[in-house]
Design a protein that fits this description.
Helices cover 24% and strands 36% of the residues. It has 133 residues and is of the alpha+beta class. The strands form 3 sheets. Strands 6, 7, 8, 9 and 10 form a 5-stranded antiparallel sheet that branches. The chain has a 3-stranded antiparallel sheet with strand order 1-3-2.
């Protein structure tokens, strides 16, 4: 199945797998999904990810993290901000703070995909892709 918005597709697959308490989920591998998965791993929201498959059918197998005895997902909310129909950009001064710094905003900058904190540190603005908390 072809998806026009691979980022929204990735976030939806992770959200659904979290709700079903799955250990792993698979998303189509693109440069963008790899970068977002790397940011989520560095921030501790997911375990690890690896590429599986060959040729054109390469997927990312993302291992999800849970906390506590009842396996509560670490990711409470994944929200897509900038969409293909309505792009949302932010200058370095207007970068959003998600829940006062508890969550992260994933930003696409000229230096790659990074969190809002890293973009502030590097004095960069860009497209606000998603909020995660």
């Amino acid at each position: 199945m072809a998806a026009n918005d691979t980022i929204a597709d990735m976030l939806t697959r992770i959200r659904n797998a979290n709700l079903a308490r799955h250990q792993t989920t698979q998303v189509p591998a693109t440069r963008m999904t790899r970068s977002i998965a790397k940011v989520l791993r560095e921030e501790g929201f997911i375990g690890d990810f690896e590429e599986i498959g060959e040729g054109v059918k390469i997927n990312l197998a993302i291992s999800l993290k849970y906390k506590g005895k009842h396996r509560q997902p670490l990711i409470t909310t994944l929200k897509r901000v900038s969409k293909p129909g309505l792009r949302v950009y932010s200058t370095k001064k207007e970068l959003p703070r998600v829940l006062g710094g508890i969550g992260i905003a994933i930003i696409s900058t000229s230096s790659g995909i990074m969190t809002d904190r890293e973009a502030r540190r590097q004095n960069l603005g860009g497209e606000v892709l998603a909020y995660v908390w």
